[in-house]
Amino acid sequence: MRNPDLATHFEGCLVGVMTGDSLGGRVESTSFGVVRHRYPGDEIRDMHPGRYGSATEMTLALAESLAADPDFDGDDFARRLCLRCHDTRSYGQGTLIALGHLRAGADWNQAGDAPAGRGCYGNAAAVRSAAVGLLYSGDVDALRWIAEEAAGVTHTHALGVEGAVVFALATALALSSRVKSIVPLAFLEAIAAETQMREYRSRLESAATIAERGWDEKTVVERLGNNQTALGSVVTAIACFACHPANFLDPVSAAIRLGGNATSIVAMTAALAGARHGRVAIPPGWLRALEAAELSVEDMSSAAAALAAVCP
Q: How many distinct structural domains can be found in the chain?
């Protein structure tokens, strides 16, 4: 690895996923109005993280697989998904179906197939793609190819696959921003320039308008979404980060207050903030309170170190 300083930012990103996933679980499926009423001020800092969920397990599986083979080994990733993923950790139906196919012996590049091309367009493939953005922050072509391949193990719908690419791109930019300031409009436009689907470009343009006019939770939910689809959550998380880039707490708080599919949206937001600011920026109280079950903070940290070690 050319720059050892990157290791703490890799760790901040992956531990950030676990932190955001666990915090988001506290308000999952709650409306943004109720969340805003419950946490009107700085109370979010004192939130106690809940159980980690599917975002943590899948992110770890992909990070470990890429650390073992940076060029992406579909068989290896599928095996690690089956090993790391537990059905009790709030997986979406499409992901559970694909995991069932894998466990039944399906090839990794066929497990996500669905009749008539109706593959899953949820956000699970996007949520776990932070590791791709970390590893390939300097190579957009490789980032896109590997994000698409890794997404396709469970998600074959174009919106689900492109969501993984868009979030990987955002992670790469967040990592690159560690040594410079972020201009929200420029950050969002840089991602829009790389996406190949007008649906995501349109959402990113809406996010840019919000960044210019001022953050408003109702507008964010109405125009960007806070649901389980990739289209209705990936740009939302990116906007939370881009509009509140100064530290770890502010973008995560903004994401929590949106409610909805909070586990995924807060996990993605925290991944971006962690990539920019490093693990040191994550509030110690949250880290101490994270669950240690099948996985722990140490597992995420170890995977981050291994991933950083193979970074070009």
A: 1
